[in-house]
Amino acid sequence: MTVKERLHQLVESMTDQQAESTLRLLSEEHADAPCGDSDIRQLPAWVGAYRGPGDVVERMDDYLADGFGR
């Protein structure tokens, strides 16, 4: 049995309370580690900084037809 298989087996045998406290400990220990897939990257700071009309997607065809700022 691999280490990961043993870990999965251990997690499956835990109560919810044990799992919660274990997760808290592991989260503190590995706070800098990425969660989930290794392909997940931190988004740049400018993401979400758009300050304009909120209907851009709905009016996309209108904006494109008008030349989109030309």
Short structural description:
This protein has 3 helices and no strands.
Task: Provide tags for this entry.
70 residues; mainly alpha
Number-wise, the strands total 0
> Which stretches of 5+ consecutive residues score pLDDT under 50?
none
Which outline best applies? elongated
Query: What is the number of helices?
Result: 3
What is the averaged pLDDT score? Answer: 80
Strand content: under 5%
Helix content: 40-55%
Question: How many strands, which pairing sense, and closed or not: the largest β-sheet?
Answer: none
Distance N terminus to C terminus? 64 Å
What's the alpha carbon Rg, rounded to whole Å?
23 Å
Oligomeric state of this protein? single chain
Structural class: mainly alpha
Helix-strand string: HHH
Question: If you had to describe this structure to a student in words, what would you say it looks like?
Answer:
The protein is mostly helical. The chain is built from three helices and no strands. The chain has helices spanning 3-13, 16-29, 60-65. The chain is elongated.
